[in-house]
Amino acid sequence: MLRRLLKGIHFPLVFSVLGLAAVGLLFIYSASFRDAGDYEAKQLFWIILGLVVLIGVPFIGYRSFLSISFLFYILTLILLVLVDFFGNRHLGAQRWLEFGPVAIQPSEFAKLGALLAVVNFLGSHHPWEGQTKTVSIAVLLLAIPFFLIVKQPDLGTALLFIPMSIVMLYLWGVRKRFLVGVFGALALAVPVTWGFLKGYQKKRLLVFLDPNLDPLGSGYTALQAKIAVGSGGLWGKGYLSGTQSQLHFVPEHHTDFIFCVIGEEWGFLGSLLVLCLYGFLFHSIFLIMQHTTDVKAKMLCGGVLALFAAHILINVGMTFGLMPIAGVPLPLVSYGGSSFLMNCMALGLVLSVYRERSIF
Amino acid sequence: MITRFSFFQWMVFGLLLVLGFGLFHTQVVRGHYYYELSLRNHIRLIPLEAPRGQVFDQKRRLLATNRPSYNVVAIPEDVTPEVYPRLSKLLQMSEKELRQRMSAGREYPFAPAMIKADVPQELAFKVEERRPELPGVSIRVDGIRHYPYGETASHVIGYIGAISRHEYDSLPRDRFGMNSTIGRAGIERVFDDVLRGWRGGEQIEVNARGELVKVLSNRKPEPGSDVTLTLDLEFQKRIMEMIKGLHASVAVLDLETEGLLALASAPAYDPNIFVSPSANEQRLALLKVQDSPLLDRSLHAAYPPGSVFKLVTALAGLETGKITPQTRFVCRGTFRLGPKAKVAHCWFAEGHGSINLYEALERSCNVYFFNVAKRLSPDDIARYAHELGLGEPLRLEIANLAPGFIPDSAWKKSRFKQPWYQGETMNMAIGQGYVQVTPFEILRLTSIIAKDGRIVVPHLVSQDPAIKVERSHVAIHEQNLNAIKRGMLQVVESDYGTGQLARVDFDKLAGKTGTAQAPPLKAHSWMTGFFPYKNPKLAFVVFVEHGGSGGITSARLVKQMLETWKDLNATAIA
Question: Which of A168, A360, B47, B527 keeps 20 to 30 A from B292, CA to CA?
Fold first, then answer.
C-alpha cells in the first residue's frame, strides 16, 4: 500500500519542502516562544495536514483539478467578495474571514484559483490560433481577483499576480508583441492602481524609494528589519538569541518577517541555507517541467514556480531594502495555515505532473 | 539557441543569486555596522503627533483649538530603578501607579510611555530641571484640545476622547497612535478624518546613556485641516444666555445660505472636561444628571408639536381640495364628531365664532382644524407631513436620524392590531396623540414654507458643497403655501394673533405658536417662523420643554432673539 502511495513521488521536491518546513518550525518557535499562542504547535498541525495534501493531490491528478478549475476560480472570487463585507479589520485592511475558530485568508486561495483557471483556459487554446481574444480573456481572468485583492487592500499579494501571469503567458507561447502589450498594460495600470491604494500603501511605496520619508511607519520597520538581518553577520547570534527580533523591534516576526529572525540568529550562512533549499526546490520543478509534454502541465509548474519565486523575492528582498515592505509570507516557512496548505496543494499539483509524466 | 524554458530558468536562478548577493552585502560586508546599531538598540523613534485642525465660526472666531500641554513621558528601557521614588515624590503618584504606566501597552520597544498628561507648567519645569537624576524621563509639549467658549456650542462641536485598544488595532498607524484621541460627538466625530492630521516622527540614534547622538531621519507631522461652521458665535452665545436655566432649544437658519446661524440646546455641558484627564469625576457626574445635558434637544429629542402641526393639517386640507382659505367653520368652543362622541374642546372656551383659515391659524382654533380633519384621512395628513420633511431623515452633517414620528393607519394596524379611529385624526390634526417631531424638523418645515416650497437642506459646515437633493421643490402648490404664509403673518401681526408677543418694531414677522399638552407636567412651548415676512432671511424654531404657553414663553424668546440678531447685524454693518 505504502509503496503504491509513494511510487511516482519526486523525492527531491518533497525533501526540500520538508527542509523548509523544518526551518520554518524552528524559527516560528524562536520568534514566538516568549509570547502566548503556541504558534509552533499550530504550525506543526498545518505541516502534517499540508504533507497529506502534498502526497494526496498527485493521486487525484492535476487534470481533475484543471477540469473543475473554473468552479474553484468562482469560489475564490466569492470568498474575496465576502471578505469585503464580513472580513476582519486589522490595521485598516480586511483580509481575513472567520469560520468558527479558523480564520482563512481568501487571497491565498485566489492565487491558486486564478492560476488553475488561466492554465486551463490557455491550454485549451493553441497559440497559433488568433491570440488577441485568448490573451484578453486570460488577462481579464487574472485582473478580477487582482483588483479585488488591491481593494482589501493587500497590495503585496496582488503584485504576486503579475510575475505569475507573465510566466504563464510566456510558457504558453504568447507572441512577443503581446508580451510587450502586457507590459504596456501594466504600465498603464500603475496610475489606475495608484488611485486604488490607501494612503499608507502609497507611503510604503514612497518609503521604499526614500526610506527617510516615514520614520514612524514602514521606514522604521524597514530600518529595523535591516538592522536585524545585518547584525546577524556571517555566523549569526545563535538560535534563540537574536536581540532585534526577540525584542519585537520587527513586527509580525513569526509571519511576514520570519526571515529577519533567521538572518539574525543564523547569519548569512542560515540565509544561504534557506536560499539553497529554495534553489533545490526550483531545480526539482524545472526537472519535472522538462519531463512533461503537456502544455497545461508546463504552464502549471511554471506558474507555481513564478509564484514561489515572487514571494521569495519580495519577502527576502524587503529585509535588506531591495523591495518595499509588503505583507507577503515566506512560502513554507512563515507561520500560517492558509498559506502553507495552498503551497502544498500547488506543489502537489507539480508532483502530480511528475507522476503522470510521459515515459520515453 | 535559448529556448523560452531555459530563459525562464536563467531568470529564476539569477534572481536567487541577486538575493544571495544582497544578503551577503548586508550581512557580511556591512554586518559589523548593523551589529553595532543592534547592540543596545541605539535607534529611538519619537512619535510627533499632528496638531488637530481647528473649528471656526462663520466670522473666523475659534470654537475649538489646541493649547500646549506638558506631558511627563519616559522610555522605560532607559529608566533606572532609583528614578521611581524620585518621580513618585515629584508627581505625587504612587510607585505602583508609576510602574503600571511604564508597563502599559506601547506601540514599539523604546517608545515613550505616557506617565502623566497635562501637568502644570511649574511642575513640568521642575521635572525638566531635575532631568540629570531622572534618566529616561522627559517632558513633551503636545497640543491638547481646547474649547474656548465652553458650553456655548457644545452640542454642535461635540468633544474628543481617548481611543480604545480595539480601535487602535483596527486603525492605520500613521494617523492613530496609542495615546491618540478621536472625535466622539458632533463635528469632532463626523469630521474626525478631516481634522486629524498625519503623524510624524523622529528617528534618532542615542548613546548608551540614552542621549541623542544624531537625528537619523525626521518626518514632520502634517496638521489636520480646519473646519469652518456657518454658526455665528456671538449670536449663539447670546441665545445660550437667553435659554440658560431652561430645558430648551433654539435653532436659527439663514435662508439665503441655508447655513445654521445658531443651534442651541440647554442645558449644555463643557466639552473641555472630556479632554483633561483630571476631569474624570465631572465626566461621570455629567452622565448621571437628570436633565441629560449631553442630549441635543433640537436634533435628538422628539416632542408632540401641538398647534405648530396645524400648518401641516391646513396644507393637507388645501392640497386635497377639501377646504379653501375662505372656507368657514363655526367654533363654539366645543366639537363633537357624532351625537354620541366625546366632546373635544377648543383652547378658547367661549369659541371663536365663524372664522376662515387665516383667522383659524391666527387664533390657533382647534375646532376649525377638527372640522378640517373630519374631511381628511390620517394618511392624507401623514403624506403632507412627510412631504414637508417630518419623520424623514435629517441629513444634517452631525445627525442623520431624526427620532420624529408621523403615524398613519397602516402603522396603527401593525403596531396595535387595531383600526385607526376618526377621533385619532382629530388629535393628529392639532399635533397631539402619536405625532412626535424634533425642533429641527419643524425648522425645516418652516423654511420650506418661507421659501415657497423650495426644499431646504440646512447645513453646519460652510465649505461643504451643498448636499444634492433629488428635486428642488416639494409637491405643494405655491398659492396654498402663500395662504399659509399669510395666516402665519397674522399670528404675529394681528391683534388677535397668538404670537403677538413676538412682534418686533423693525419689520414684519410671520410665525406659528404651539402649546403641546404633556400631562401631568406643564405643556411644551413652541414657536416657529420666518423673518422678515417679505423676502425672508431667517427661519427659526424655539422650543421650551414644559415651558407653558407657546404664545408667552416662546414668543418672548423669539422677540429677544430677533432683537439680538438685529443688534449684531447693525454693528456688523456700522
Answer: B527
